[in-house]
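Because discrete structure vocabularies remain unfamiliar, we turn briefly to a single example record, giving the amino acid sequence and backbone structure tokens:
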Amino acid sequence: MARARNIKNPFLTLTSSPVFHLVSISPITSLLFSPRKSPRNHAKFFTPSTTTTARTLSLFLLLLLFSFSILGISISSFIPLFSRDSVPCSLISPSSSYSFPSKSHSQFLLASLSTANGEDEPGLANSVMVPLPAQGVSGNVSKEEKEFWEKPNGEGYKPCLDFSIKYRKASSRISKEKRRFLVVVASGGLNQQRNQIVDAVVIARILEAALVLPILQVNLIWDDDSEFSDIFDAEHFKRILQADVRIVSSLPSTHLMSRQSIEHQIPSDVSPFWIRARFSRKLKEEGLLVLKGLASKLSKNLPPDLQKLRCKVAFHALKFVTPIQDLGYMLARRMWIEGPYIALHLRLEKDVWVRSGCLTGLGQEFDKIIAEVREAQPEYLTGRLNMSHTQRRLAGLCPLNALEIARLLKALGAPRSARIYVAGGEPFGGSQALQPLAAEYQNLVTKEMLSKEGELAPYVKKASAMAAIDYIVSLSSNVFIPSHGGNMGRLMQGHRAYVGHWKCIKPNKRAMIPFFEDNSLSDAEFGSIVRMLHRKSRGQPEPRSNKRDRDVIAHPVPECMCKHTTPIF
């Protein structure tokens, strides 16, 4: 009741400001607001003319004071606007001191969190996983080396998840859905599962269904039985997406069935219209839809709001659990403290050679092992079955081996003293597979070498957790280079662009491989050619709209990043 009275009579509970207090104790106030005294008692002090003059002067001074107060308020309101507009294009400010970026550095990342309707997304700023502060290069370095370490020009693009009014209006209904549920089974390695989880959220939004926390299928290659909550922060996932899709930990008992039909015959490049036409009726009748085999099935060309949702899931909602994230940043810190470093995602694992149909470069003994596995399991071979090993390599379909990576780094201007973090699984052939690279660049480091005794012990048999650690350390590198594209390469490319345009060099294998074979070229000539071939792919924004069917997660411009003076969510 007291609160209601305060609302009805705001002046009774008004908290006096310093300006009001100054006015209240001034002589002006005493003249204007003090009770009138009897003229007889004050005749000896004031005559009628002096009283009128005093009151006129008092009114003038009060008006002047009020004007200055309004001017001061106006100026103070202007200052934050200029402060926000002055946020640099780089979303991470260099700093000599270090603290885990989950809190402090994310404040630099997103200067403004206001949505188009003036509401803040729950914890959106602090949800972005950001790199450690940029490391500069000092001392006398060559032009090529300086160019290699140089951070790309972001051209003013910043995160910009401004959903439409129509999308936000529908959110109030969709986020409360309690009758229809979607269950998705995500397969493959960690980063392939991440892409499927992103699409699962988008499909749940399209079907206006609640999403059950995705099920991570047991990985038969690495024998990893990790569940969603073992790798990702489930509560954070729910909280960040609570305005977009309702997410539950498990199916309610009312929707449990003795036998559930699983939909896995999904063609490639399906549109929102196809999804609604195919699944809406079943979902409405049964209240449950189980999808499997989502990998790369959802169209890359979706309406803008759904593209923004993809970015929101990939860069904000999918946060690793605290123990994994803390360990990842700890290892990244150990690399970072020594100065700038390179992260290489080498795709030299046995299964990659089997699936790619390429020669390992390790000799006939190793190639024979791969050929036998491929013959026994031909279903692993991915596409273009009629091509020879040589044709595949010249078409850019093979991973770069250690020798080719070493030549690429040297041609790009990477100094031989550069520290290199090697991400990825155990290479087929062990240390022999890395020997040509280690001979040229001796400061090769892996997570096993960076970690202290016992730190990796909980994750030794958890390939997904180990891949998550690789992801975090790679994110903070000055330069990231994937040897064979893939899901991690695409995710890292988009993530690094999203948090400040960190350099990501995608080897142009198709154009470069013929020059690897030309022994007549000198090192200088070869280096010049390689740098020219990669001049346009060294981190500058590559708008997705320039080429359809590009993944918005790898190319967040222009759907998820725009040239606003401050980021908009």
Remarks:
- The chain is about 45% helix and 5% strand.
- The chain has a mean pLDDT of 80.
- The two ends are 38 Å apart (CA to CA).
